[in-house]
From TrEMBL:
Protein name listed in UniProt: Kynurenine--oxoglutarate transaminase 1
Domain Aminotransferase class I/classII large: 39-420
EC code: 2.6.1.64, 2.6.1.7, 4.4.1.13
GO CC, alphabetical: cytosol; mitochondrion
Listed cofactors: pyridoxal 5'-phosphate
Signal peptide segment: none
Organism: Piprites chloris
Pathway: Amino-acid degradation; L-kynurenine degradation; kynurenate from L-kynurenine: step 1/2
């Protein structure tokens, strides 16, 4: 042993093949840039206003007076009070009886719920349909599991009457969608309300997806983290509640979005035992368990919501009302300066067309980086305003078709939105003077 050289460096390649091509991550890069340069951050999706008092109080109770056992392990697949509250809530939402122990599993945020799904269901060679634009980790997670992502875009149609475009104007082409299904298709990922567009899929659109899932015997991984953030009186339809879909759908949610506490990283899956049993296998062999105190506090928050269900004091009623006002504030600011927003039906994001501002950041042909990446970085560095390029939510092959939009998050204090407005106004003035 002593005869070995001190600096015996490894020479063999260390990276597992499954990591090839997924090492870059938009969030790591843009979060760092925003922290360095931006004065006003409407980039990454998180509220800058406080989580509700009842949630903070619940955490204090869990930490303090309650049981000291809340500092210890709890049940691997979900703290019993939390899975019980979630089962009660989803019984209402899905209109069926649920067993908290087998139909619900708690995860480290919706992120881990997604990871469990892809690991549990996708084999080498399986195809997974992803609707563009999509939350970027779907693609990497499918690839890590050995699957092949098959992309199908929502196609924008400009409204004829001169009104602002709505996220509802971005639609699937039914034939194009159908053409992506084959005997190799294992699953489709649905995200409604959709990040980044804010599109809330209509019942008709969901029925089309459901019909294809049933026809081709395909699973549906339904990411519904923004389920309560729906505006203008619209309704969020849960695809698991459509005929034939319960048996093949995993519904994914997040306390981070539901209770404006993204740092807590408490998420869940709801579905039939025959699917969730495989998620439990992945969970018990990877994460095993999520922080008990956070689960206890989220359980109490849900118990409150169950008591107030449908009442005006419910956070599920109040949060979207507040966010709709914030959405409208940001829309006004963007319209006033000529950045055309696509009015979102849901989520706390909107995308805006930057065409009128392109003269500030000249296009350079044949660069590796898409134009909207360069525009957004320029805006952060030169204007102090952070956003996220829309093409980050597209596959490599389709990125270059969507470089005229950037995404803003409007889950922000009024002062933050006003500061963004000031930056935009000043910028517009400089352009025209
Ligand atoms: N899905 C979507 C569509 C998201 O936007 C996010 C968070 N940005 C997640 C899942 C992850 O949620 P969590 O923070 O609960 O892990």
């Amino acid at each position: 042993f002593l005869s070995l050289p001190l600096q015996a460096k490894m020479s063999r390649p260390v990276q597992a093949r499954r990591l090839e091509g997924i090492d870059k991550n938009i969030w790591v890069e843009f979060v760092k840039l925003a922290a360095t340069y931006s004065k006003v951050n409407l980039g990454q999706g998180f509220p800058d206003f406080p989580a509700p008092d009842f949630l903070q109080e619940a955490l204090k109770r869990a930490l303090g007076g309650g049981s000291h056992m809340l500092h210890q392990y709890t049940r691997a697949f979900g703290h019993p009070p939390l899975v019980t509250a979630l089962a009660q809530l989803f019984e209402k939402l899905l209109g069926r009886e649920l067993d908290p122990m087998t139909n619900v599993m708690v995860t480290v945020g919706a992120y881990q719920a997604l990871f469990c799904c892809f690991q549990a269901f996708v084999d080498e060679g399986d195809e997974v349909i992803i609707i563009e634009p999509f939350f970027d980790c779907y693609e990497s997670m499918v690839k890590m599991a050995g699957g092949t992502p098959m992309f199908v875009p929502l196609r924008p149609k400009a409204p004829k009457d001169g009104r602002l475009m709505s996220s509802a104007d971005w639609q699937l082409d039914p034939d194009e969608l159908a053409s992506k299904f084959s005997e190799r298709t294992k699953a489709i990922v649905l995200n409604s309300p959709n990040n980044p567009l804010g599109k809330v899929f209509s019942r008709g659109e969901l029925e089309l997806i459901a019909e294809l899932c049933v026809k081709h015997d395909v699973l549906c991984l339904s990411d519904e983290v923004y389920e309560w953030l729906v505006y203008d009186g619209r309704e969020h339809t849960r695809i698991a509640s459509l005929p034939g879909m319960w048996d093949r759908t995993v519904t994914i949610g997040s306390a981070g979005k539901t209770f404006s506490a993204t740092g807590w990283k408490v998420g869940w899956t709801v579905g039939p035992d025959r699917l969730l049993q495989h998620l439990r296998t992945v969970h018990q062999n990877s994460v095993y368990h999520c922080a008990t105190v956070a689960q206890e506090a989220v359980a109490q928050a849900f118990q409150r919501e169950l008591m107030l269900y449908g009442k005006p004091e419910s956070y599920f009623v109040q949060l979207p009302r507040t966010l709709q006002q914030k959405r409208d504030l940001l829309i006004q600011s963007l319209v006033a300066v000529g950045m055309k927003p696509v009015v979102p039906e849901g989520t706390y994001f909107l995308v805006a067309d930057i065409s009128e501002f392109k003269s500030d950041v000249p296009e350079v042909p044949n660069l590796d980086e898409p134009y909207d990446y360069r525009f957004t970085k320029w805006m952060m560095k030169n204007k102090g305003l952070a956003a996220i390029p829309l093409s980050a939510f597209y596959s490599e092959a389709h990125k270059n078709n969507y470089t005229n939009f950037i995404r803003f998050c409007f889950a922000k204090e009024e002062a933050t939105l006003k500061a963004a407005n000031d930056i935009l106004q000043k910028w517009k003035k400089e352009k025209t003077s």
